[in-house]
């Protein structure tokens, strides 16, 4: 099940819940049943420096001739 962001118009708070696509959970802050599903920003996969560095090291260990080669020191 995906994580959705919801807005509660009664208390003007935003919260996240893991729910089915058609579910509308009650607000955890005030208990109001009328919540609005928000459009969430997608997270780009593999954009952190640690993940990229790990992928480059793994590619170098495995001998891949790709753009994942370990960059020279100081770059």
The residue ranges in which pLDDT falls below 50 over 5 or more consecutive positions are: none
Secondary structure: helix percent = 10-25%
The rounded distance between the terminal residues' Cα atoms is 41 Å
Radius of gyration: 21 Å
Main sheet properties: 3 strands, antiparallel
Number of helices: 1
Which overall shape is indicated by the principal axes computed on the Cα atoms? Answer: rod-shaped
Strand segment tally: 3
Order of helices and strands: EEEH
Strand content: 15-25%
Numbering strands along the chain, what is their spatial order in the largest sheet? 2-1-3
What's the number of structural domains? Answer: 2
Average pLDDT, to the nearest integer? Answer: 79
Which class best fits the helix and strand makeup?
alpha+beta
Describe this structure in words.
With 75 residues, this protein is of the alpha+beta class. The chain has two domains: 3-38, no CATH class; 43-75, no CATH class. Helix content is 19%, strand content 20%. It is built from one helix and three strands; from the N terminus they run E-E-E-H. It has one helix at 49-62; strands at residues 3-8, 13-18, 36-38. A hairpin with a 4-residue loop joins strand 1 and strand 2. It is rod-shaped.
